[in-house]
Structures are given as structure tokens and as C-alpha cells.
Amino acid sequence: MFDYASARERLLGMGACDRCIGRQFFRLFSPMDRGAIGAKVRQSKTLEEALSAKPGKPVLKQDCPLCNGHFLEVGGMARKAAQLLQGIGYDSFLVGCRVEGQLLGREEELWNEIGADNSEPLKKDLVRQLGMELEAATGKQVSFSHPDVTVLADFTTGKASLEVHPVFVYGEYKKLVRGIPQTKWPCRHCHGRGCSYCNFTGKMYPTSVEEIIAKPLLVASGASGEKFHGAGREDIDATMLGWRPFVLELQHPLRRTLKWASMEKEINSQAGGKVKVHGLRPSSKAEVRMLKAAKYDKTYEAIVECDSDVKGLSRLEEAFSGAEIAQQTPARVLHRRADLTRSRKVRSVSAELLGPRRFKAIIKAESGTYIKELISGDGGRTKPSFSDMLGPCKCVELSVLEVHNHV
Ligand SMILES: [Zn+2]
Ligand SMILES: [Zn+2]
Questions:
Q1: How many angstroms is it from 199 CA to the middle of ligand 2?
Q2: Which of 11, 94, 326, 382 has the CA that lies 20 to 30 A from 130?
């Protein structure tokens, strides 16, 4: 049980400062500065006296065994942090701090002796005080849920540092040409360092949807890097003619407020007809998770070539519309994916003959369906396949016509 007199005696005996004394009693008093509470407790033998005492000036001490004098350092820490925050665009921040492990141990021991019922932990009090001083110094607000910046105050070294949280940008893209990967693809020989194989670019392909979209946004935000999160991806040799959602994560941005309409124009004009974006707007980490978990049906256009003359296209349409197929991980991606068999639904197929051995198929299929393999059969790894029905055939051109994300 918490006993005022013995708690007070213990704290005075160990030479604690008023702030650290006040922290152990703060639940007994109506809201006020912990230092003011401590000053009242110091001069009052009983709780009744303390509750009605006039507050004296709190005494802070460099050699307080419970805070190592850190409350005297909060002002300096706030100035250092405010300096770091200059030149960074942000509206809200959160404060975190680090103190000596020894202090946390002592706090724990103290609570074992006097009880922690009315107490506030050292770090919580330090962080609140620092937050208040920073709010005053910067005119910006503390946010616990979505801070733009986290300020880290390391009281063991006296140093402040910043973690600037990413800006997330939602948009939708089209890829109008073949031969561009969705994301940056580091050279498989040098892993990005640059070698003769990749012509010292460090990349397998000169550009990507990611790089085209990110470049103007990196410049505008002053971000140091980015990450591209697509709602699925198309093959390098496939076009993406419907709008595919993505979220671009801009890391360590200096500016968070971007002009969406002009960014969109900028990207589209720099993309030179390869890629198009629309619908740029602010996004969040939560939306990235949603995008990654989403299972969108897709509609494809496939140009198919057969070894022999095509017969029975209407039978093919009938057999595959609403069919369930078993797909073992395609041979072409086995080097980076686990070898599993998955069941996928083909919603609909409609086909149109283009020549004796050539036809066009519009295929709507469940998320994750490998269309090239649905057509070729992948040496028996996808069953059934168009090849099962028509004899050997393969997809020579693939376009994604639509991502069905608007249900
Ligand atoms: Zn103290
Ligand atoms: Zn290389």
C-alpha cells in the first residue's frame, strides 16, 4: 500500500529532485506540474498539508538519483530538436527518449519499495515536458497517431535526432509499352553496383514504371529514396492498359505537401508516352497493406499462336468460362517462388480468330492467375490449359485491360 509519509521520507533521503518527488504522487493531486507537486510534498509532512500547501519554486538537481538531472536538460534538448526540424516540412511530431538503463532500474526498485500506484514513469514525464517545449518552440502539434516526424532525444548522449516518416502517395497507372518492368530491377550479376553486363547502370532494364513515376515526386518532395507498392504486377513484356493502383512511399521527405494535379502532369509529360498516371492523392501505410492483400480480378487480352489450325474456339470459350484450373508455380518463376499448386478461377473467356493459327482471347481471371501458362499449359504444370484443347499453343502478346478494383 502507498503510504505518503514513508514514500516522502524515502525520496528525501535519497536526495531526489522536486520533479522526481512530484512524479511519485501525481495521481493524488489535481493536474499540475510534477515539480510543483514535489515542492509541496517536500515542505509537508502529511498529505492533507501537501494538498493545501502553497506551491514553492520546484528545485531541480543535476545529481538527482532518479533523473540524473535530465529535467534540467530538456530545454537544451528542445532547442537542438527545433534546429534539426528547420528546413523540414511537417505539421505534427512525436517525441521519444532514451535514458540510462540504471535510472530505469532505480525507478523499478523504488516502486518495489513505495508502490507505483500514484506514480508517473520518468520517460513519460520527460517526453511530455519535451513535447510541450517543442510545441512552444516550433508552433507545431504533438500527434500520437500519425506524426510526420518522430524526435528522438537521447539523454545518455545529449543528442537529438529525427526520424522523418514517409509520405505515401496513391495513384493508378497504365503501362502503354512492352519491355519495361514495374519495379527497379537490380543487375543480377553485380546486384546494383555496376558491371560490364549491365553497362554500369546496375540495372537489368534502363527504366521501370517505378522510376518513371517516382522521379518527379522525389524531386518535388526532396525525399532521399522511395518504395513502390503495386496492386499486383504485370509481366515485363505485357502492357497494362487498364488503371492499376499503386502506392509510392517517399522516404525521408523534406516537403510533405505536394500539388497533386501538377505532379500528375509532370509525371505524364516526362514519361514520354510509356506510362500514364492519374488520381494522385495522399495515402497511408494502412492502404499499402490493403493494396497488398487485395485480390482483384483482372481482364487480359492475349494473342495466341497455335502449332496447327485453330478449331473449336467456341468450345474453348464454353469450357474455360467459369472453370477452375490447377496451376503449379510456372517454370519461369520457380527460381524466386515456392513450388506450389494453386487453384484459380477463370471467370470468362471470349475468343476471336485472327488467322488460321492465330486468335485473340479476352480472359477475365482471378487474382494470381498465370495467363501465359493457362494458354501454354507450361509442360503440364497448369491443368487444364488451352493447349490441352487446341494442341500446342502459346501467348505471343499479353495486355492487361482492366484491374477490377472498383467493385
Ligand atoms: Zn530528478
Ligand atoms: Zn551489373
A1: 7
A2: 11
Q: Quote the ligand 1 centre to 20 CA distance (angstroms).
A: 4
Burial grade of 199 (CB within 10 A; 0-12, 13-18, 19 or more):
exposed
What's the pTM value of the predicted model, to 2 decimals?
A: 0.83
The domain boundary residue, chosen from 276, 293, 310: 293
Whether residues 58 and 127 share a domain: the answer is yes
By residue range, what is the domain housing residue 30? 4-164
pLDDT digits (tens, 9 = 90+) for 261-285: 999 999 999 999 999 999 999 999 9
Residue that is last in its domain, among 164, 190, 220: 164
Based on the fold, state whether residues 18 and 152 are members of the same structural domain.
Answer: yes
At 406 the pLDDT is 65
Nearest one of 78, 205, 195 to 129, comparing CA atoms = 78
User: Is residue 235 flagged as an active site residue?
Assistant: yes
If you measure from the C-alpha of residue 211 to the centroid of ligand 2, how many angstroms do you get, rounded to a whole number?
A: 18
Q: How far is the CA of 158 from the centre of ligand 1 (A)?
A: 16
Separation CA 310–CA 291 (nearest Å): 39
Q: Which of 195, 159, 169 is nearest to 80 (CA)?
A: 159
Is there a single domain that holds both residue 288 and residue 314? no
Q: Are residues 42 and 91 in the same domain?
A: yes
Average pLDDT over residues 19-35: 92
Kindly write down the DSSP assignment for every residue of 316-360, as one continuous string: HHHHHTTEEEEEE--GGGTTTS---EEEEEEEEEEEEEEETTEEE
pLDDT in tens, 214-247: 999 999 999 999 999 999 999 999 999 999 999 9
Q: Please report which ligand is nearest the Cα atom of 188.
A: 2
Specify whether 211 is located in the same domain as 160. Answer: no
From 18, 125, 148, 235, active-site residue: 235
Looking at the structure, tell me whether residues 286 and 357 fall in a common domain.
Answer: no
